[in-house]
Amino acid sequence: SPSILKRGGPKNLPIATHLIDERDFDINKPRLVILGSGWGAISVIKGLEKDKYHITVISPQNYFLFTPLLPSATVGTLETRSLLEPVRSLIKGISAHFLEAKATDICFNDKLIELSPVDESSEPFYVPYDKLVIAVGSLSNTFGIEGMEYCHFLKTINDARKIRKKIMDNFEKASLPTTPPKERKSLLSFVVCGGGPTGVEFAAELYDFLTEDVVRYFPSILRNEVQVSIIQGQDHILNTYDAKISDFAEKKFRRDNINVVTNARVQKIEPNHIIYKMKKSEDVKELDYGLVLWSTGIDMNPLTKTISEKLEDQKNTRALITDNRLRLKGVSDSSVYAIGDCSTIENPKLVQQLMQFFIDADKDKNGRLSYNEFQALAKKIGRRYPITKSYLKKADTLFARYDQDKSGTLELEELRTMFEDIDKKLTSLPATAQVAYQQGKYLGKKLNQIATAQKTKIFPPPSDYSVNTDNPESDVDDLLPPFSYAHFGSLAYIGNAAVADFGTGWTWMGGLPAVYLWRSVYFSEQVSFRTRALLALDWSKRCLFGRDISK
Ligand code: FAD
Ligand code: MG
Ligand code: MG
Ligand code: MG
Ligand code: MG
User: Fold this and answer.
1) 384-414 per-position pLDDT tens digit
2) Cα(114)–Cα(223) distance, rounded to whole angstroms?
3) Of all protein residues, whose CA lies closest to atom 46 belonging to ligand 1?
4) Residue 137 beta carbon below 6 angstroms from any ligand 1 atom
C-alpha cells in the first residue's frame, strides 16, 4: 500500500523511490523514466540496452497504437485490437517497469514526476528520475472553433471504435421506414474537416467500405444518397506532399464523387450541420452531416502546456522546444528530453553566430572568405546543424550566388545575406511517426552511450559536433552528435491506390501494386510478429468475407 512510501516533494505526496521490489534496486544505476507509449517512447525502448538504467515507462494506455493503420479500423477493414501491442511485452527484454498512469506535472528542481493513476480513486504520487524522456504526443487542434463536442476525432483506438459504431448506427437508422428522406440524407453525409493524410485516408477507407460492402447489404437507395465531403483550408488536399500527388488524389476523389471543397474555413459546427466560409468569395455555406471527423493539425496536451508555462525558455508555441540534441530548453543539466509530436527542435539562427563563424572560417585573416574557406565552413555548419545540410550541400552554387560583387570571395555582408536566407527557409519537422521513431532511436542509442561514459568515466572524444556550452561541467551529451532527420518519404492511401512522396521530387503513385507496397511498408515497420499475423488474418478475412458490418 502507498502508506509504506515516504512522502515529500512540493505537494507532500508519496514518493515511489523503489518500485514494488526494493531488492531490485542498485543505487549506482541512474533512473530513466519514459513518459508515453506511442511511437517516440517505443522506439527509445527498442534501442535501450538492458542494465544501463532502472527504466520506468509511464502511460495512461498500456499499449502501443500503430496509428498509420488507424483509419482502416474505422470501417472494419482491420480489427481495432490488431493495431495494439501491449507495452509490457515490449519492455520485457529490458526489464523495465510499467505504470499505468498519467503524468500531470514535473518538478524539475526535485526531479520528481507527479502522476495520477488512471483509476481516479487512487492517490496521486511522485516518481523520481535522473533522466526523463517526454514523449506524450499531442491533441487535435480545434482552433477554438465552436461545436467541437459534435465532432469525432481520430487519434486513439477508442476514437476509431466510436466512429465505427456511429457509421453503422447511421446506416441502420437510415434504413428504418420511419426515417424521413431529408434526415436519411443527412445521416448519410460524412464530412471530413482537414485535407491532411489522416482526413484523406479516412475518406478513402469510407469510400471503399461504401462501394465494397454497403452496396451488398443495404438497399440501393441508401447507396445513392451517401455523400463523403472533405473541407480543406488550403488550395489542395495533401498540401504537404508533392504537387503531383495532391493532384492525383484530387482527381481520383472527384472521379469517385467525393466532394472536395478547398480554400474553405470552417466557422462553426451545429448539431446537424456545419457552417463554412469560402476564402475567396467569402460565401458562407452550410452542409448537413451525420458524422464529422475533425482532423486539422495538432496542439499541446495538458501536461505539455503545464511544462511550457513553467519554464522560462519555453515560448508556448504548439510544442515543447528542444535543442538539436533533443534536450528540453530551460533545463540546463541534460536531464530532460522531449521527442515526437509534443516537441519541436529549435532551429539555429545562423545570423546570430555570423561573426563567430566568419572569424573562425577566415583562416588567412584577410577579412573575406575564399571558396576553400567557405567550403570548410559550409561543411562545419552542416555537421553541427544537420537541418541546414540540404541548403549547404551545393557550396559552389551558393558561393557564386551570394558573391554579389563578383569579387571571387565572400565578404561579411554577403555571408550575412546567405545566412538570413537559410534561416528563413528552415522549417520544423512534421508531426509524424517517422520523425518520432527516428528521434526515439537516436535517443535510445545516446542514452546507452551516456550511461557507459558515466559509469566507466571514459568520455567519448569531443567530435566536430561538440558545441560550446556555458555549462562548466563536462557533459557527455555535448560530445555526442546532434539529431539528424532522414526523410524516407510519405505515403497516403487514397482508396484502392496509394500515393508516395519520397522527397527530392521523386513521387510515385498507382493502382493495386501501390496498395501492396503501401501495406508492405507498414507491415515491416510493424512492431511484432504477433501483430503482423493479426493484420494478415484481418486482411485475408476481409478479402474472403468482406468487412464485418455488425457493431
Ligand atoms: P503518440 O504516438 O501519440 O504517443 C503518445 C503517448 O503518450 C501515448 O501512449 C499516450 O497515451 C501517452 N500520453 C499522453 N499523455 C500522457 C501523460 N500525461 N503522461 C504519460 N503518457 C501520456 N505518421 C506517419 O509517419 N505516417 C502515417 O501514415 C501516419 N498516419 C497517422 C494516422 C492517424 C490516424 C494518426 C492519428 C496519426 C498518424 N501519423 C502518421 C502520425 C503519428 O501517429 C504521430 O506523429 C506519432 O504517433 C507521434 O508519436 P509520439 O510518440 O510523439 O506520440
Ligand atoms: Mg510516445
Ligand atoms: Mg516534433
Ligand atoms: Mg580569407
Ligand atoms: Mg564578394
Assistant:
1) 898 898 889 889 999 999 999 999 999 999 9
2) 52
3) 433
4) yes
Identify which ligand lies nearest to the alpha carbon of 304: 1
Q: Which ligand is nearest to the CA of 133?
A: 2
In CATH, what number is assigned to the domain containing residue 397? 1.10.238.10
Same domain for 356 and 377, yes or no, is yes
CATH number of residue 207's parent domain: 3.50.50.100
Confidence of residue 547 (pLDDT cuts 50, 70, 90): confident
388 lines ligand 1 (CB under 6 A): no
The answer, yes or no, to whether ipTM is higher than 0.85 is yes
Q: Is the beta carbon of 68 within 6 A of some atom in ligand 1?
A: yes
Give the residue whose CA is nearest to atom 12 of ligand 1. Answer: 36
Cell of 184: 436519411
551 in a structural domain: no
User: 505 in a domain, yes or no?
Assistant: yes
Q: Based on the fold, state whether residues 497 and 413 are members of the same structural domain.
A: no
Q: Which residues contact 90 (CB under 8 A, 6 or more apart)?
A: 42, 45, 46, 64, 527, 528
Note if the pTM is more than 0.90: yes
**Going by C-beta distance under 8 Å and a sequence separation of 6 or more, which residues neighbour residue 538?**
77, 78, 79, 82
Give percent above pLDDT 90 in the chain: 66
Distance from residue 426's CA to the centre of ligand 1 (Å) = 24
How far apart are the C-alpha atoms of 56 and 30, rounded to whole Å? 11
Binding site membership of 322 for ligand 1 (Cβ less than 6 Å): no
